[in-house]
Amino acid sequence: MAVMLKVEGLRKYFPVRRGFLQKVIGYVKAVDGVDFAIDHGKTLGLVGESGCGKSTIGRLILRLLEPDQGAIIYKGSDIAPLSQKEVLPLRKEMQIIFQDPFGSLNPRMTAGQSIEEGLRTLGIRNRSERRSRVESLLNRVGINPSAADRYPHEFSGGQRQRIGVARALSVEPSLIICDEPVSALDVSIQAQIINLLKELQSSLALSYLFISHDLHVVSYISDRVAVMYLGHIMEYAPTEELFDRPLHPYTLALLSAVPSPGKEGSMESEELAGDVPSPFNPPPGCKFQGRCPLVEDLCRKGEIALYPVDTEHVVRCWKVVGKRDEQTRRVTTDEPFS
Fold it and tell me: Cystine design at 162: which of 97, 141, 214, 336 (Cβ 3.0–4.6 Å)?
């Protein structure tokens, strides 16, 4: 399977400034050394609590934010060092579907005009041809083409998100970042949008980075899942493997919190104690240490690696894979960001 996108060692630290001279006193470590890959025509689900850095990763991939370190390898080429001018031709190949379907649409533009912007990017200058393409795209996402002249406030939330999907498709992308695309919708509408995304992926061979906090949705649409906490990937595995054999205590806690009425043998709910530490001053060692039921002194030192469970399953916890001796040997002192 060909790799569409590969992220290696991705970091984004936001400076914190104080005082009259706005002196930098530290950094918020929003994304702190992230690695993953998305295969052609497949979906990676990126899941975690609010504030863990999921949306920041999406914007780094699209180069809406500048990465501080790391590689973003798209179709074999690292786009992280490229200037904004050099990235411009790639804009049509990588698109985003936003969480808020109303806020992402210009209220002064009709649905058709919003979609036409992408068609102009493709160089389609003939107005009648653009109009025909707009109607075709609306029809493809389940909107009556006659609605092209209506404004965003005239649509329901689900219809507005369908228009957002049509707008993303207008430039014929290969990769779409889905940033919580159904979290603002009713449950019944969520299912319709997810099924639409799956159908489009099948027919157009699209690749998705699907960002969400909803494990039910992630399990349905994703081929692989990355569990994120405080800027780190804590566990990464094929979807079926992760849900059948979760290993990291954080993954277990997330899964146990998902309601499963009538499901036999479901795990008991594990309520996470404590608060998420500040990304401005994270603890040394494991970032999950303050809430982990398995924590011990060794977890509070150095840097915890991602350990392989098998060829496609890795976990950032030495205890669950029995690597005490190796962890003891590899403990290092964290170096400050420069």
Answer: 141
